[in-house]
Amino acid sequence: MRKCCFHVPFWMIVILLGWMPLHAAERDEDCWNLADIYPNEEAWSQAKDAAEAQIGKLKNYNGRLGESSQVLLECLDATASIQKEVRRIFSYASMLSDEDTRADRPAQMREEAQLLATELSRQVSFIKP
């Protein structure tokens, strides 16, 4: 059996690893700014509540899409608007949760956002069954 002639002492590996940055994404330009989406968790919560209310109104279009092109347009515009907001709600919660996966509140927010997206999908299933 052939042995490798290159052997690095353990202490040298420890020293070399010590020189390497542990958190390369510590610069501001490498991190996301959640305030670009919502200024704080309270604003996120208000947006989520408003989206829930808007999702509930979509059922008013169920069975009416054939009435006129105007009704169809209103339904599709309302759906697209709510989908955009739900994506923002989910993105904020997801990124906040990713900052510290040990924290309970952000994980709960992510779950709430997932439930909101599921409810939206359920409410608009009549558009494209």
Tags for this entry?
129 residues; mainly alpha; 4 helices; elongated
How would you characterize the overall build of this protein?
- The chain has 129 residues and is an all-alpha fold.
- The protein is elongated and about 80 Å long.
The succession of helices and strands, N to C, reads HHHH
| Number of H/I helices | 4
Shape: elongated
Please tally the β strands and state the result: 0
Characterize the quaternary organization of these chains: single chain
Give unreliable regions as ranges: none
Largest sheet: none
Strand content: under 5%
- Which value, in Å, is the CA radius of gyration? 24 Å
Helix coverage percent: 55-70%
Structural class from helices and strands? mainly alpha
Strands, helices and their partners?
Blueprint lengths: L9 H10 L21 H17 L11 H31 L4 H20 L6
Write a short abstract of this structure.
The chain has 129 residues and is mostly helical.
